[in-house]
Amino acid sequence: MSEICLWKEKYRIGNNEIDEQHYLLFSKIENLLVIARSGDLENKKKECQELIEFLIEYTKFHFEAEEKIQREMQYVGYTQHVWIHQGFIKTIQDYREKMEQDFSLNTLKSFAGTLLTWLAQHVCECDRKIMSNTPLENQSALAGTAENIDLIVSKLLEDICGVKVRNAKSCLYKGFVEGSVFVRRVATGESRYVFLYGLSEQLAREIYFTISSLQIEDIEKLDEIESSALSEITNIMTTYITGVLSDEPSADFKYEDAVYTGKYTDGTYNLADGIVISIETDHGKMEVLYCKVK
Questions:
Q1: Contact (CB, 8 A) for 176 and 164
Q2: What DSSP character marks residue 196?
Q3: Is the Cβ–Cβ distance between 178 and 197 less than 8 Å?
Q4: How far apart are CA 294 and CA 276, in angstroms?
Q5: Rounded to the nearest 10 degrees, what angle do helices 105-125 and 224-245 cross at?
Q6: Distance between CA atoms of 233 and 161, rounded to whole angstroms?
Q7: DSSP secondary structure code for residue 10 in this structure
Q8: What is the pLDDT of residues 174-189, one digit of tens each?
């Protein structure tokens, strides 16, 4: 089994209290990943349940501590930061309910992959802005759709995954999106938006390794940790994009996703009017299809 080391120095935000809490969260997620990857859930069920309960409760405690610091320093992005925290608390509470009903290895892996990816993104994209009192969003609704998607996706790839973006171009959807791993994300509010993310094999492997320090075993048969980690990255991208392109609050949308490998053949939605943004990186390509279907 590969050694897992999730903590990175880039996760430090410059506040000792918060940095220590982040370090503890990452170390507990490491412990959970070791159990999940061992597959020995039956013999380690009690330890696993204690870890899950700790992570859920400590995440809430950490958010409260972080928000207190933001209030004291009158952080400019406080309100939005609280909304983001509340959204993720709902996610982990949903997982708690799932695991109460189905304490399975697949559910455990999905929880671990989602929690790890969300925390890494949140620290890099949000928490590092607290001490410098920097607003959370840099995108502008005045920019075009393709430009905003390019800006958001490129920034997340570079900040979270350390993936250098070379260039990007947009075109109309021609019936396919290139890639080896595909995540379809549907955001439904008063309007409905469909996003399809196509990742090259090399890029999918690089993103997953950067976040987890682990290798994808089989690109055509992703396990639940790998699938949920890659899905959560695109979930974060989708939330940012809808937040800029739609007048509806991101928190009001309901999201659903599906992960495909090999070749995307799902025909649930008519995507003829979609826009594809093709982003070239040092580790292969990501194509993002965006389409408003309702």
A1: no
A2: E
A3: no
A4: 18
A5: 40
A6: 10
A7: G
A8: 888 999 999 999 999 8
